[in-house]
Amino acid sequence: MTSLVHKELAGGVATVTLDSPPNRNALSVRLLADLADRLRWALAEPEARVIVLTGTGTVFCSGADLKEQRSSGGDGDAPVTASLPEILSMLWESPKPVICRLNGTARAGGLGLVTACDFAIAPLSASFAFSEVRLGVVPAMISVPVLRRVEPRAAAEYFLTGEVFGAARAAEIGLVSRAVPEEELDATVARFADLLIKGAPEALAITKRLVREVPGMPFEEGLRRMSELSAERFTSEEGREGIAAFMEKRPPRWATGR
Known about the structure:
The chain is α/β, with parallel strands linked by helices. It has helices spanning 29-44, 66-71, 84-93, 109-116, 143-146, 152-161, 167-173, 185-197, 201-213, 219-234, 237-247, 253-256; strands spanning 5-10, 13-18, 50-55, 59-61, 98-101, 105-107, 119-123, 127-129, 165-166, 178-180. It contains twelve helices and ten strands. Helix 1 (29-44) links the parallel strand 2 and strand 3.
């Protein structure tokens, strides 16, 4: 059986591609299983420094596979709930930076994938919507990453109305990192990946956690814990190598593959 999600590794970048254009890359049981498998590969692959999540066709992800959901019956079993939480967690907790390259429009559950990534680059032609309430359901699982990214009043507006909005507005409210002309999409993603690969792997993983954890710390506790972490990193193997490389005017070992 042909996989609905493809993988590729080149130049330190692991690209994971949703490839089910006939149903607009909907989150079917098969696609979710294949996506989980490809993400595990990317996370375990030593040569992969950055992960890029993208899709084929004109739609990045249309959300849950509604035909599959309808055929599941009314016994409380919803296929999309089986593995989507694991996938969102893998993206969110990944020690490797994850860039979402939106090849096009995203809806509902697809926006959970978008916001679980560290960065999201969208073409200006893309549109977005949280369409759940118009179907009598709610943006439950995806609210966990979405509400950590999107400005609260904007989240309330689009969660409750289901209104379609554009990429420029998505960038304005924090749903995506950048909205760019379509012809600049690949160059922008490549620029982010190149910048990220220059960072030390452990330092990147730790800094990802800082961005999420420090704002919730009491001020004095934050200063104490971050002082300890700073001292630890200056004396770490990566810290010593990075400082030596800077002083010796050479690339650090993680940037050269040595």
